[in-house]
Every structure is written in structure tokens, then in C-alpha cells.
Specification:
single chain, mainly alpha, Four Helix Bundle (Hemerythrin (Met), subunit A), 2 domains, 5 helices
């Protein structure tokens, strides 16, 4: 006797749906699906940017004018710096996706309290509540990294 796998249909939420949800719905299956999709889209966008950068850097523009060469090198440096920030963001996205899988997404790593929907909408890779983040930044400001 063959068994059918039945995929449960998850309702697709919008940002307004998330913002008006009750506290008891926090990190429900639908909310997790929303943030998973948002993170996957962000990851795809960053990977596409990386491909564009690689293509751009392979297009070796040859110029003999020192000013033009300096401008090109500065543009490459800025582009590589941006890609480095995006590479770090990719790591945070992967971490967030794993947290969705293990059920810890949306909760502060320090306090265990909910991070909050508005903060996660603004920064889907957030791992600290606003209060914990502010506390960490104050300590870093006082004592340095």
C-alpha cells in the first residue's frame, strides 16, 4: 500500500499581515515561511550581484592615462569592498535560514525574548533584540572591540 505525502498548504503572509498578527502567532509556520522566502530572495540578489561583479572585473579595461587608471582602480576597490560586506551578509543569511530550521529564528540569542516582527522586517538577519543590540553597542563603545 503506497502512502501519499500530503504537503500542508501554508498561507502566504504580507508585511501588513505580520504587523497586525497577535503575540501568540509569533514565529508561526506562516511567519517563518514569510521570513524564509525573504531571506532566500535576499540571498539570490546578493549572489547575482557577486556574479555581476565578477563579470565586470573580468572585463579588463586597458587605459594608458594614469588618471583614468586610478579612477578604475578606485571603482574596483569600492566594488570589492561592497562585495565583501555582501559576503558577510550572506553568512548571516545562511545562519538565519538554519535558525528557521532549528526553531530559534526570531528570538534573541542573549535573552531568549522575541526580537519582534518590525525589527525582523527591517533586518531579517537580526539575532538580538533591540535592547540587547543597544546594550552590546554601548559596551563596545566603552571598551572597544
Amino acid at each position: 500500500m503506497a502512502t501519499k505525502s500530503v504537503a500542508k498548504k501554508v498561507r502566504v503572509l504580507t508585511e501588513p499581515d505580520l504587523l497586525k498578527a497577535s503575540d501568540k502567532e509569533y514565529m508561526s509556520e506562516e511567519q517563518l515561511a514569510f521570513f524564509r522566502q525573504r531571506l532566500l530572495e535576499l540571498r539570490a540578489q546578493l549572489l547575482n550581484n557577486a556574479d555581476d561583479t565578477g563579470q565586470h572585473l573580468r572585463e579588463n579595461e586597458v587605459t594608458t592615462d594614469p588618471s583614468d587608471r586610478a579612477t578604475l582602480e578606485e571603482e574596483y576597490t569600492l566594488e570589492l569592498r561592497t562585495r565583501d560586506r555582501e559576503r558577510k551578509l550572506l553568512k548571516k543569511i545562511e545562519k538565519s535560514l538554519k535558525m528557521i530550521d532549528d526553531g530559534t529564528y526570531g528570538f534573541c540569542e542573549e535573552t531568549g525574548e522575541p526580537i519582534g516582527i518590525p525589527r525582523l522586517l527591517a533586518r531579517p538577519t537580526a539575532t538580538l533584540s533591540l535592547e540587547a543590540q543597544e546594550r552590546r553597542e554601548r559596551v563596545q563603545k566603552l571598551y572597544g572591540d
